[in-house]
Amino acid sequence: MAATKGIKKIVLAYSGGLDTSAIIPWLKENYGDCEVVAFVADIGQERADLEGIEQKALRTGASECHVVDLREEFIKDYVYPVLKSGALYEGSYLLGTSMARPLIAKAQVELALKVGADALCHGATGKGNDQVRFETTYTALAPQLKVVAPWREWDLRSREALLDYLKERNIPTTASLEKIYSRDENAWHISTEGGVLESPWNAANKDCWAWTVAPEDAPDEAELVTVKVEKGAVVAVNGVELTPFQCLEALNVLGVKHGVGRIDIVENRLVGIKSRGCYETPGGTIMMAALRGVEQLVLDRDSFKWREQLGHEMSYVVYDGRWFAPLRESIQAAADALAEDVNGEVVVKLYKGTATAIQKSSPNSMYSEEFATFGEDEVYDHSHAGGFIRLFSLSSRIRALNAKK
Description:
The structure is a single chain. With about 400 residues, the protein is an alpha/beta fold. About 40% of the residues lie in helices and about 20% in strands. It contains 14 helices and 14 strands. The protein is elongated, with a radius of gyration of 25 Å. The protein starts with 8 loop residues before the first strand and ends with a helix. The mean pLDDT is about 95.
């Protein structure tokens, strides 16, 4: 391992799960007994996952463990900007994992520079997208630091092998062979992969959903929630002004209750593999409905079309881990400009898995009842449309005349 030369201290993105629990002793054994500093990002995952995590890292061989609260930063500086663009990867995925990874990697780099580390390490596999997202961020922010990716180096290829590895070293773990699903959780979403989902012919069962009530079991009575939007960002829920993270928390509670935000998709990973996952984004789905509702009032036809194009491009940029690239920044600048007038209130109806914007208002609304009415009006001369249509269809007229010649 030529890469081991000169590495004295490594900062590991640590979750406390099976993989990263095995990585700490593996690093010490294979990288010259280097010092391993565990970095834990609190991005809103289950509180139980963070209980005792520092002691666990130290027992496994880490010299230090730093738990950093990134919840507000995650929603305010990563989720909200992407929401402004309207990004949906392949038409449905709200990018929960994709948005979290660059923030985690950035905070990991900051810790590495602070403690004088010379290398960074992550537990992403060689099959997935996360390895790209982590390492692209590392390169953008601290190219001088070496990168260690155990899944591309070690010969531990299964859950059984990892459990045996820890058992041989008397390292306790709560992981077991019974865990058949792979899950990623943060404040924005939870994803579920593996198990029965590995065959696309298998319907997802109740074990594939971790947060939300099944839509058929949701309340029979709809619930209305009022969402206030300023410059393309959600700032209040039901009349109460909250921080971005608090807005999401409040909407998550409602979305979970009504089975909102479930998708079951087969997506194209960046590395070329198709994968299937069940994603739950309850509060985010409500936010998306509210923001798009205000946009419908405010953005003219060409602006809306441009925003849709921005969202399409942004979805690939974020999914591919290019958060700190000039391309993402330029798309964001355009989305921010369009969102300047996206202010208003929306009432969203939650009912059995759906979130529907049913009432919309904005001080910047371009909707005019006087012009739109099907009744009699005094502001629109119908005869003007004839000239417009004649000019709009002029190329078709010329083509038809040429064809007759």
